[in-house]
């Protein structure tokens, strides 16, 4: 079979998105948790924001200049807005505002904490915002901080100008003194070359004096105003918060995003197969069928109105048209690990499906550790087809009780070789008698279905792979890891077998609870061969329950000793 159920790369993007969204919904608890966190954060923001008021002021900055109308003046190059913003947020500004407001030194930190200063892009404007619980206090503190910043910047500019004036004056004083002394010397010199040389030196000194006095005059003429307040803070009429309804809405949207992000991360790192395509890629074989929810542990073949019965028929037909299975008609049904409930149910229902098509089917229970099929099925030794008769065997070999007949209702009947407890399981599974038993499939009209313990729990299935080379893996994608499926395929291929495909199922909570109850009650001990050959008493009516689609099905159950 070439069908592998692996999604093609050319699959439509909307279908891929729908599949991914369905996979994300597997983690509803993460999405719900994200929404809950978002709503809590929104509620907190709405409640705390209802008692906060924000007052704002705007200050346009300017550099010191003697001619504010000069067209060549470029204040944006003289002022670094990033540095000015940090200055406005500094503790020095907060201390000056605290003095204006009459706040002690211990309140400077609280005053500084409520201030926020921003700079709109491509402007020389500083935007002061102060947030407080009282609207009047917010306006008063915003104005005080703004004025403190302006005063601090003016004080800093004036300190720079005073330092520069002092430096220029210190340079001017010795030059002026030297000029005065030279002037007195020139008066005493006669006309001639000496006087001409003295006049040249005096001219240089006068030029130097003129330059220094010009710089001093320019500095004294500078306008040292650091900026102008273009908007004073007023009492805010309403709170600054977005309000409780809006906060809850925003929190819910953010929570949905967080929940989806968490679900996506969980999905990426989830070791379990996310879809049938993941299972197919892991086992490198097709997913032959997906059983309806809660139907993996029921005997449903023979009930034409059952969805599960039709699914088993579909699996059987797909196997029948697979050349790898049709050539030898040997099928090994196994589960990855854990319980055999699902693999046993699939093996029994497939055996009944093959019997329904007219095949002589032999179901072999290769579970020699905890056998239970003969106790859970409607079996009888009254009728044995010619192909199911076996010769005498040595004591202690398996099978030792002969072959039973299972009544599958409308599907007919099929043979059953029940498992038995033996001391040496590997020797019993690799014995010549087991080989002859599986060789029943050499008959053109015969099919052998073998069910073995989980592959990753025991090596029993691998001991049978060389004779039953067609393997069907039964798994619940929610409880198995992709690495487990890859490991099973490697083990089967390494033992010389072939993975024909997989069957997936999903147990309902009610079915899982019933399985747990059956495990808790334990299995009844295997009867002796003499007891099994006794004339059968009237069989009890099988337990019935509703399948996933509401149809009546027959459940695999453990019969009481009184029912036998």
TrEMBL record:
Gene3D superfamilies: P-loop containing nucleotide triphosphate hydrolases
UniProt KW Oxidoreductase keyword: no
InterPro entries hit by this protein: Bact_polysacc_biosynth/exp, P-loop_NTPase
Keyword field contains Mitochondrion: no
Highest taxon of source: Bacteria
Region (Disordered): 505-564
TM annotation in the entry: 27-47
Record key words, sorted: Membrane, Transmembrane, Transmembrane helix
PANTHER family: FERRIC ENTEROBACTIN TRANSPORT PROTEIN FEPE, TYROSINE-PROTEIN KINASE
Protein name: Lipopolysaccharide biosynthesis protein
């Amino acid at each position: 079979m070439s069908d592998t159920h692996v999604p093609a790369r050319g699959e439509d993007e909307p279908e891929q998105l729908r599949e991914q969204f369905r996979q994300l919904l597997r983690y509803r608890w993460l999405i719900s948790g994200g929404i809950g966190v978002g709503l809590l954060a929104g509620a907190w923001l709405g409640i705390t924001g209802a008692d906060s008021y924000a007052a704002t002021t705007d200050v346009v900055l300017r550099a010191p200049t003697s001619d504010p109308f000069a067209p060549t003046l470029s204040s944006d190059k003289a002022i670094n807005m990033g540095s000015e913003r940090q200055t406005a947020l500094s503790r020095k500004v907060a201390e000056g505002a605290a003095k204006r407001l009459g706040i002690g030194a211990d309140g400077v930190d609280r005053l500084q904490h409520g201030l926020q200063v921003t700079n709109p892009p491509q402007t020389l404007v500083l935007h002061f915002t102060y947030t407080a619980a009282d609207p009047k206090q917010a306006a008063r503190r915003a104005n005080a901080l703004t004025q403190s910043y302006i005063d601090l910047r003016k004080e800093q500019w004036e300190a720079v100008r005073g330092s520069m004036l002092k430096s220029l004056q210190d340079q001017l004083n010795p030059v002026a003194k030297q000029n005065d002394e030279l002037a007195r010397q020139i008066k005493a010199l006669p006309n001639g070359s000496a006087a001409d040389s003295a006049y040249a030196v005096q001219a240089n000194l006068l030029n130097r004096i003129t330059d220094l006095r010009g710089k001093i005059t320019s500095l004294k003429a500078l306008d040292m105003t650091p900026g102008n307040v273009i908007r004073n803070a007023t009492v805010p009429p309403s709170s600054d918060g977005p309000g409780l309804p809006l906060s809850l809405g925003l929190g819910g949207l953010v929570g949905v995003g967080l929940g989806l992000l968490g679900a996506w991360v969980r999905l990426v790192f989830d070791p379990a197969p996310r879809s049938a395509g993941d299972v197919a890629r892991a086992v490198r074989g097709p997913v032959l069928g997906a059983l309806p929810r809660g139907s993996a542990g029921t005997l449903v073949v023979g009930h034409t109105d059952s969805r599960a019965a039709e699914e088993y028929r579909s699996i059987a037909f797909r196997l029948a048209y697979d050349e790898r299975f049709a050539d030898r008609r040997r099928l090994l049904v196994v589960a990855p690990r854990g319980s055999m409930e699902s693999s046993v149910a699939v093996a029994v229902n497939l055996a009944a499906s093959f019997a329904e098509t007219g095949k002589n089917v032999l179901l072999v229970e290769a579970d020699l550790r905890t056998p239970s099929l003969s106790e859970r099925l409607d079996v009888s030794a009254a009728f044995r087809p010619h192909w199911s008769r076996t010769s005498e065997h040595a004591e202690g070999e398996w099978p030792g009780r002969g072959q039973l007949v299972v009544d599958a209702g409308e599907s007919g009947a099929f043979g059953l070789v029940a498992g038995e407890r033996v001391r040496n399981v590997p020797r019993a599974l690799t014995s010549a008698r087991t080989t002859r038993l599986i060789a029943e499939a050499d008959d053109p009209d015969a099919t052998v279905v073998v069910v073995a313990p989980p592959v990753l729990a025991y090596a029993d299935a691998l001991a049978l792979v060389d004779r039953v080379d067609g393997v069907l893996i039964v798994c619940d994608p929610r409880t198995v890891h992709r690495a487990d499926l890859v490991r099973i395929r490697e083990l089967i291929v390494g033992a010389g077998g072939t993975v024909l495909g997989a069957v997936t199922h999903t147990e309902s909570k009610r079915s899982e609870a019933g399985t747990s109850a059956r495990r808790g009650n334990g299995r009844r001990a295997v009867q002796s061969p003499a007891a099994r050959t006794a004339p059968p008493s009237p069989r009890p009516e099988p337990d019935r329950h509703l399948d996933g689609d509401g149809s009546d099905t027959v459940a695999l159950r453990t019969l009481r000793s009184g029912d036998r």
